[in-house]
Specification:
The protein is mainly alpha-helical. The protein folds into 3 domains: 2-55, no CATH class; 68-149; 173-346, hpI Integrase, Chain A (Orthogonal Bundle). Helices cover 50% and strands 10% of the residues. It is built from 15 helices and 6 strands. It has helices at residues 39-55, 68-81, 87-102, 112-124, 129-148, 173-181, 188-197, 201-205, 238-256, 276-285, 295-306, 311-318, 324-328, 334-347, 356-367, and strands at residues 2-7, 13-25, 28-33, 212-213, 218-221, 232-235.
């Protein structure tokens, strides 16, 4: 490593502050600016270049020089190109938390210890594990995009924090009936549909009659309209058909009055935008304050499991791609539990549901 010198007007030579590095590739000397005034950073870049040479990795002069700001801009562009709805949230997290910690640094200098220091600082600021993990996920993505673009060869290990993300919000039938009773009549069919299907609120609010197949007796979501981008169908049940017939009668009445309403759920023909205030009030008056609409999703998954619907079918109906959701929702296979209890009873010589007298009579019969 060395620093270049510049000749001044008076004939003297002044050492420039920027470090340069020199290494050999295929027997030829390679020189490039480390673009830093810090010797430790320059030495780290030099070791990285020498390691790349040993591994036979192609080296370009700009390799490893990408800065945090460059990587953040690439990340946000990636969000725009892929139409990510969380672009605004990602930008906010970068500006408020990541940028103050890593501004002006090269990605090459953001090591695992530096990431741990960032995590420790955020914990000291009382940030939750979930918040910190969302920020670390953005940092991880920056490194991944830089490697894909050939700006870096490797990325550091970024340790994530453990999250207690088991979801516990479920509606028992009586609780659901109380909440529904405290909602406006126009909202009751909507929440009933959510309770039965577990579909997301946005999917229900935008549901149209063209997606209801009375002949095939299914309700479908078009590809591209769901969170996963995949289409979905839910077969009619008796309760679901009752809800849809009630909405269809209202649709037909509005049609006769000269108003065509394509939406299945609406307020007197107008789209339902939001009802957060009404929802909070209904939950409070029903004695279950703090419940969220997404609890219907968890409830539907659990109810399908309890009703004996196969896990693969339930996942397809509700819209889950992996079984990890069952671990998050703390849902176990009710049928498997019943089978396990039966095995325990058989091993103990008893049958679930029999009384001591019945078992005694059974023993007498066997002995006779």
């Amino acid at each position: 490593m060395y620093k270049r010198k510049q000749k001044q007007a008076d004939g003297t030579w002044t050492e420039l502050p920027t470090w340069w590095i020199k290494y050999y590739q295929h027997g030829r000397p390679m020189r490039e600016s480390a673009r830093t005034t810090k010797e430790t950073v320059a030495r780290r870049i030099l070791r990285s270049r020498e390691g790349d040479v040993e591994r036979g990795v192609p080296i370009t002069p700009k390799m490893g020089l990408v800065t945090f700001e460059d990587a953040a801009a690439d990340l946000l562009n990636d969000y725009v190109v892929n139409g990510r709805k969380t672009h605004k949230d990602a930008k906010h997290r970068i500006e408020k938390h990541l940028k103050p910690a890593f501004q002006g640094k090269r990605l090459l200098s953001i090591t695992t210890p530096a990431v741990r220091a960032f995590t420790a600082a955020r914990l000291a600021a009382n940030a939750s594990h979930a918040e910190i993990n969302r920020e670390l996920a953005l940092l991880k993505r920056m490194f991944t995009l830089s490697v894909q673009a050939g700006k870096l060869h490797t990325k550091p290990h970024i340790p994530m924090l453990r999250e207690d993300n088991t979801r516990r919000g479920f509606f028992e039938p009586a609780q659901f009936e109380l909440v529904r009773a405290h909602l406006a009549p126009a909202l009751r069919p909507l929440v009933t549909f959510a309770y039965l299907t577990g579909w997301r609120l946005t999917e229900i609010l935008t549901l149209e009659w063209r997606q209801v197949d009375w002949t095939g007796r299914i309700v479908r979501l078009d590809p591209g309209t769901t969170k996963s981008g995949e289409g979905r169908t839910f077969p009619f049940t008796a309760a679901l058909e009752t809800v849809l017939k009630g909405q269809k009668a209202e649709h037909d009445a509005l049609k006769q009055a000269g108003q065509i309403v394509p939406l299945v759920f609406h307020r007197a023909g107008a789209p339902i935008r939001t009802f957060r205030g009404a929802w909070r009030s209904a939950c409070r008056r029903a004695g279950v304050p703090g419940r969220i609409f997404h609890d219907f999703r968890r409830t539907a998954v659990r109810n399908l499991e309890r009703d004996g619907v196969s896990r693969s079918a339930a996942m397809a109906m509700v819209g889950h791609k992996t079984e990890a959701i069952y671990r998050r929702y703390a849902i176990v296979d009710a049928g498997a539990l019943r089978e396990a209890a039966a095995k325990i009873d058989r091993a103990a010589g008893t049958i679930s549901g029999t009384t001591d007298a019945e078992r005694s009579n059974s023993d007498n019969v066997r002995s006779a």
